Amino acid sequence: MSALQFIWFVLICVLFVGFFFLEGFDFGVGMASGIIARTDEEKQTMLDIIGPHWVVNETWLVTAGGAMFASFPMWYASLFSGYYIMFFLVLVGLIIRGVSFEFANHAETARGRHLWYNTFVIGSLLAPLILCMIFFSMIQGVPINAHGDLSLGFFDIVNWLSLVGGIAGVLMSLIHGLNYVRLTTTGILRERAENLNRFLYPILFVGEVVFALLVFFQTDFFQNKLVSSTIITLLIVVMSLLGAWGVYKHHEAWSLAGSGLSLAFVVILIFNGLFPRVMIATNPAHNILIKDASSSPTALKVMTIVVCILLPIVLIYFIWSYIIFAKRTPSTKKAIG
């Protein structure tokens, strides 16, 4: 394995970390809008607090997929062809959530507006659920032939670990979104978000125990990398404790950091367990390794140069957009339409 191959594997991990940290609270706000927002004005406020950012946050996933295609085409081909229907469902969730912003704002009737508010909730739930199911199905080992082709059955995709992982991803995103609501709104929405998180955090801690046990028994992560997998798992719990502490002590920023980093460490746990593989086969002889799945050294070198030039520009714009919209949004904003 070359240094550039390792760097691009880490970079793809970083892109997924950024996606779940940033788009995670977008998904959470969307789901929370169906729980804590009870009037049109409150639902519109939930749309407004992520309106300036959700497109940029979503591009982290697009960039991760593009980086995978360019740097590890064999990984991309095996993963996306094998999980084609699942990725299609993720795309459906992202699309219906995306259009709900515009359609809710331009709906001419209350009924139409409520339809798109509900679509916003459904799309925000569907995308993280299916995406997490893909990841936690993949790490258990899947049927792969010598050519890297997947032949997945229903229970290769839907099983205890993928279901628990999908539900955990939804719950962690919801908690993350509620912490973002607490940070960016005032009034009744902020209070409801805090009260709901006080209820959800104990459930999350129980779920994390179940999740850790399933990862231990249904993957080879702890067998192959006992120390690093244990440390990362503990960090997931520690970050969740930090988020809960922020809720009970009314520190919104610490809560958001804790819930976001707990999601980030879940992604890191997955990539740490995969390394030096990119796909785990039920037959170890058919594992797809980083060194075999990557593009040519010249392609990796050119892409690295392009990233070094463009990344600072993108990050400056990204940070600037959050600074511009840093002011809290009142809970009484009028609905449009």
Automatic annotation (TrEMBL):
It is found in: Cell membrane. The chain crosses the membrane at residues 6-37, 83-103, 115-137, 157-178, 199-217, 229-248, 260-280, 300-325. One of its GO terms (molecular function) is electron transfer activity. Pfam families: Cyt_bd_oxida_II. Its main location: membrane. Keywords: Cell membrane, Electron transport, Heme, Iron, Membrane, Metal-binding, Transmembrane, Transmembrane helix, Transport. GO terms for biological process: aerobic electron transport chain. GO terms for cellular component: cytochrome complex; plasma membrane. It comes from the Bacteria. It is a multi-pass membrane protein. InterPro entries: Cyt-d_oxidase_su2. Belongs to the cytochrome ubiquinol oxidase subunit 2 family. PANTHER family: CYTOCHROME BD-I UBIQUINOL OXIDASE SUBUNIT 2, CYTOCHROME BD2 SUBUNIT II. This is Cytochrome d ubiquinol oxidase, subunit II. It comes from Bombilactobacillus mellis.
